[in-house]
């Protein structure tokens, strides 16, 4: 999942304990050293097709900020007015050349701000850089259920694998999913911003890399989803109260000064995991940027595997997210459920059916989701996992009704914890993370409570009430309009 930078393809940098993942020993012999993700595309010209209109969108040579001395290519031209000129023709390879020009990733060392000695990580020196290795001719592709990320640049190949609806409610679920899911053009806008911001940030931290994470990549994004970015400065744990805040303060200063023409309203939020919130004026996307929250990189690809391992998962998750947003219980900053917690709740429900629709991927494929695996391997692992074949033939409509029934009548909120890692409801641990909490949803990698934001009984009662109401309305009349006005939801997208 390494971005398009000069750091691509370098030899793995080892953590202090020198621990190696077992994953590399289990790949097929002909597997190329680097499987390119969406953030590593250099194979073919950027011709993005709209999944709806099937037309090629002309890409404009947009630029963000200034370019370091000696790194300006012919295609790196300013973009007057910051607006797309739809009639202007640009060569197919223009954007590719701009992002991958031979000098565009040079780090200006004399402008770098070094970290204090005690904070410096073990990133390899620039002398170890080598180009990314593309798939060798004749090498067999990995066979798995998770499509390579480069495919998301074109009409989604998984569209043909969506379930065939056999009832009205299932048809409504599928139609809402298709109308509101993230499109290739949405992902491209976020990726363009990530690429340009990484280049600017590397002038301050030359060995850093910027990752696009969360719903933008995990398969559960919508057309209006915000972008989540993770800045990795060193591949080891970092003190979020001191180191991360120091780094983010420099990033915030960069956004507020040098990049102020392109970055709108940057804010440094000093939370448990501090972030910089900002809006990119070029892509018109809101972003949250954190530092070294590497769990977010790992769980992005765990969820991406769940998203594509069974074709009913993505439509069901997206509709639940739309429902929660419409009923205002999908905002952790206001004491309700985060989208991440909602996704885990849907996965847990599908794992705990009498005839499960999903397994525990971490139990079945521990080598693919090893929490100590080096980051440059994380995006490769899911592609080795085959699709999950369930004997449960329930329709999307029946599963949606069952989801609301499970949390309205069956799940014991007072004593149980939702665990996707174990694929079952577990007794709550007796720790500060869980004691006296209204909702407990285990983070699959670090074991924290992703629903800790629900700390008021009033908000918890409201959430439970919405689950019970949705179950009652859908049970009475199997019409998705009873819980999510479809016309308004499609227009909002």
UniProtKB/TrEMBL annotation:
**InterPro entries, alphabetically?**
MTPAP-like_central, NT_sf, PAP_assoc
Protein keywords:
ATP-binding, Cytoplasm, Magnesium, Manganese, Metal-binding, mRNA processing, Nucleotide-binding, Transferase
Family to which the UniProt record says this protein belongs: Belongs to the DNA polymerase type-B-like family. GLD2 subfamily.
**Name of the protein:** polynucleotide adenylyltransferase
Q: What is its EC number?
A: 2.7.7.19
Q: Entry's PANTHER family?
A: POLY A POLYMERASE CID PAP -RELATED, POLY(A) RNA POLYMERASE GLD2
Subcellular localization is given as: Cytoplasm
Cite the GO molecular-function annotations of the record. Answer: ATP binding; metal ion binding; poly(A) RNA polymerase activity
Catalytic activity, as annotated = RNA(n) + ATP = RNA(n)-3'-adenine ribonucleotide + diphosphate
Listed Gene3D superfamilies: 1.10.1410.10, Beta Polymerase, domain 2 (3.30.460.10)
What gene, per UniProt, encodes this protein? Tent2
Segments forming domain PAP-associated: 395-449
The cofactors named for this UniProt entry are:
Mn(2+); Mg(2+)
């Amino acid at each position: 999942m390494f971005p398009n930078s000069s750091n691509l393809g370098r030899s793995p940098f080892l953590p202090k304990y020198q621990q190696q993942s077992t994953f590399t020993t289990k790949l097929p012999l002909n597997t190329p050293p680097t499987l390119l993700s969406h953030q590593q595309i250099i194979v073919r010209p950027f011709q993005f097709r709209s999944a709806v209109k099937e037309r090629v969108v002309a890409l404009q040579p947009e630029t963000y900020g200034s370019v370091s001395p000696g790194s300006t290519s012919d295609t790196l031209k300013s973009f007057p007015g910051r607006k797309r000129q739809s009639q202007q023709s640009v060569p197919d390879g223009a954007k590719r050349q701009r992002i991958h020009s031979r000098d565009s990733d040079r780090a200006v060392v004399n402008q770098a701000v070094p970290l204090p000695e005690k904070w410096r990580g073990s990133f390899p020196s620039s002398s170890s850089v080598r180009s990314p290795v593309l798939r060798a001719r004749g090498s067999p592709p990995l066979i798995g259920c998770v499509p390579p990320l480069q495919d998301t640049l074109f009409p989604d190949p998984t569209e043909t694998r969506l379930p065939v609806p056999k009832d009205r409610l299932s048809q409504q679920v599928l139609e809402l999913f298709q109308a509101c899911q993230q499109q290739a053009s949405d992902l491209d806008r976020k990726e363009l911003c990530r690429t340009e911001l990484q280049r600017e940030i590397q002038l301050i931290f030359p060995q850093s890399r910027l990752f696009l994470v969360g719903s933008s990549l995990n398969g559960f994004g919508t057309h209006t989803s915000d972008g989540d970015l993770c800045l990795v400065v060193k591949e080891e744990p970092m003190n979020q109260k001191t180191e991360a805040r120091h780094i983010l303060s420099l990033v915030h200063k960069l956004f507020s000064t040098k990049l102020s023409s392109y970055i709108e309203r940057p804010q440094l939020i000093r939370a448990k995991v501090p972030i910089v919130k900002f809006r990119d004026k070029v892509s018109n996307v809101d972003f949250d940027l954190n530092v070294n929250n590497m769990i977010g990189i790992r769980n992005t690809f765990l969820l991406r595997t769940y998203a594509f391992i069974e074709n009913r998962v993505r439509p069901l998750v997206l509709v639940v997210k739309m429902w929660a947003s419409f009923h205002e219980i999908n905002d952790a900053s206001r004491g309700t459920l985060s989208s991440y917690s909602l996704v885990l709740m849907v996965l847990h429900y599908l794992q705990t059916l009498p005839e499960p629709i999903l397994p525990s991927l971490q139990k079945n494929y521990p080598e693919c989701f090893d929490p100590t695996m080096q980051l440059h391997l994380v995006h490769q692992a899911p592609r080795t996992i085959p699709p999950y074949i369930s004997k449960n033939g329930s329709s999307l409509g029946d599963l949606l009704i069952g989801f609301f029934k499970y949390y309205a009548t069956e799940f014991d909120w007072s004593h149980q914890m939702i665990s996707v890692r174990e694929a079952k409801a577990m007794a709550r641990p007796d720790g500060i993370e869980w004691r006296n909490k209204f909702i407990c949803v285990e983070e699959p990698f670090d074991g924290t409570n992703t629903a800790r934001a629900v700390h008021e009984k009033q908000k918890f009662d409201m959430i439970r009430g919405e689950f019970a109401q949705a179950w009652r309305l859908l049970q009475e009349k199997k019409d998705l309009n009873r819980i999510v006005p479809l016309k308004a939801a499609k227009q909002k997208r």
